[in-house]
Amino acid sequence: MRHTRNLCLILQLLFFANSLFAQSERSIQVYGDSLYQVLSKITDPEQKAEALLDLSFFWSDYDTVKAFYYIDEAHDLLGTKAKDRYYQGIFSFYRASVLFEPAPERAKSAYLEVDNILKALPDNKRALRYRIRALGSYGALLQRDGHAEEYVEVLLNKVIPMAKDIRDSVLLGVNLQNVAMALMNMQRYDKANQYYGEALQLLQRKANSEEERLTLFVNAARNRLYQQDMENARKFLDSAETVSKAIPLSSYMPTYHVVEGSYWERKNEIGNALAHFDKALLRAKQMNSQDIIPNILYGQYEALKRMGRYKEAKAALIQVLPYVEGKSLLRNKQTLYYHIANLNTLTGNFKEAAQWYEKFKLVSDSVFAHAGEDKILTLEQKYKTAERENELLLAKSKFQEQQLSLKRTQSWLVIMVFASALLALLSVLWYNTSRNRKRLAAQQELLLHQELKNLQQREKISVFNAMVQGQEKERSRIARDLHDGLGGMLASVKLQLSAVADDQQAEQRKEETNMELYNIINQLDQSVNELRRVARNMMPESLLYMGLEAALGDLCNAMRHKGLDIEFEARDLRNDYDQSFLISVYRIVQELLTNAVKHSDASKVWVQCNENDGHFYLSVEDNGKGFTFNKNPERASGIGLSNILNRVELLNGQLEVDSVIGRGASFHIDINLNG
């Protein structure tokens, strides 16, 4: 009863403090002191010690010295009881929480130590809850280091099963949300939506879960923004704003303002966007959160660049430099150097732009080198794993052969012992058994033949699917390498030549030399444009970011030329098709249009696509010279048409070809979206 009264008193003061104090350093100090004053009314040493540890958790976001002080105070209060395994584990947990931001490597070691200490108390539910929190925080640090897949593995294989065992819906909801965030970071937005929905069902009616729901609403809104779903993003942000009124000092408020700023930036209301970014920056600096500050500054850069305020946008990016250059992630440096160079180009500062492009080129070379090393290590691991599996299979096969040989020997011994007495009976049995075996063997042969046919078909589909996926990944990689690597280097050369041309023009007027130099610059411009066209053709950006309709429209426009008119029409298409479906449909249309351009001598091509009642319909028709179509896929004329047939089969679709010599050709495809 006393514990219940103390808990209610703390909750009342929490509510009072949250509603009374503004989000400033002074209000944070007053709020923390108020929590400490409540502790004086708690008389039970263990309850008071755990309240001190929770107070340390609050201060870990603002003042690490105070946070460690309250941990030491709790330790002294418990005396010899602090040596119990349970308290050793939770003290390690709270120390790791303080180290989370300033010393992440030490924090990771401490979180693993918590799990190691407390797993010896399997029947203690409180210990299990701390293990769940420790492993979740450890996984979050793994994700921060770029190991998102390991983070998801920790959540799915350890944290979530433990939360289900103790039936703690709040912990389960929090970690389902963590899985959603990891999937969101890997750009699997539809899958992330499912996990966010499950987490919301668990948390929306739970008391004292405001912090968890605020985090959930903010990240669900961010996921919707990535999908350009502005309507649902606004709903989640409104819910987050409502919850935040109950916890205005939450450490997640900077992230809330960042997502709000991104929303208004996409709505082109830059004033609102910058106001939220300023609020986020103020809170993040109060909390000394070194990881979120560069994200806020980058959001300010995007908003300022959209307004055309390039100098202020550049100043925002320059502030990001210390945070990025202090880390080992080369991708972040590569992106930052490129954008700074681009801003210098927009402001006409070609010399400085060339310097930043040179930095971008050097980092890009390192990124590509690391990527190659990672692929080699991955292939080596797969190879070693395959070798071990083959050795196990071989040993198992030899063992089975030995067992079979032994059984046969035993059978022959038994037969020889009883042969004379049972010869007549065995003859009859042998005759009947032989006849049954022949009949069974014939049936098994038919079944085996059918199974082999089915297996060959499945293997054919599997091989083609793997080949297509490999081709698309390689296309994407080459397109990214062309655009980020060679494109950046060509742009850098062009900018350096432009700077030299400007210097020459200022110092002396040599018109013929300058004319040749500008011709070279124009040729470089054409080379960059051609490079970008090839990169877009290999993996069109409009397909990944604007959807199927926009990508097919761009494709038709690109392939239209004098003498060939391409008419495109799309109806009732969705924006949430799987990426593999989008790429397959795009490649089918691309192959059909390429065949029409190369072989049909057509003057007009019609491309139509629509979705109706769970089916996706696609048709490509031309008025060209036509051809004779062979319905046998193995004898289909041309590799391109064979690829189209295989892609349609992979999508669980049907292809109908209507072509007559001299009357053009029509391709009609029906894909069942429900499998």
Automatic annotation (TrEMBL):
InterPro entries tied to this protein: HATPase_C_sf (IPR036890), HATPase_dom (IPR003594), His_kinase_dom (IPR005467), Sensor_HK_TwoCompSys (IPR050482), Sig_transdc_His_kin_sub3_dim/P (IPR011712), TPR-like_helical_dom_sf (IPR011990)
Coiled-coil region(s) at which residues?
Answer: 369-403
Instruction: List, in alphabetical order, the Gene Ontology terms for molecular function in this entry.
Output: ATP binding; phosphorelay sensor kinase activity; protein dimerization activity
Kindly indicate whether the keyword tRNA processing belongs to this entry: no
- Pfam families on file: HATPase_c, HisKA_3
> Where's the Histidine kinase domain?
477-675
Signal peptide residues are: 1-22
Query: What is this enzyme's EC?
Result: 2.7.13.3
Catalyses: ATP + protein L-histidine = ADP + protein N-phospho-L-histidine
Name of protein: histidine kinase
Originating organism: Sphingobacterium deserti
- The organism's lineage? Bacteria, Pseudomonadati, Bacteroidota, Sphingobacteriia, Sphingobacteriales
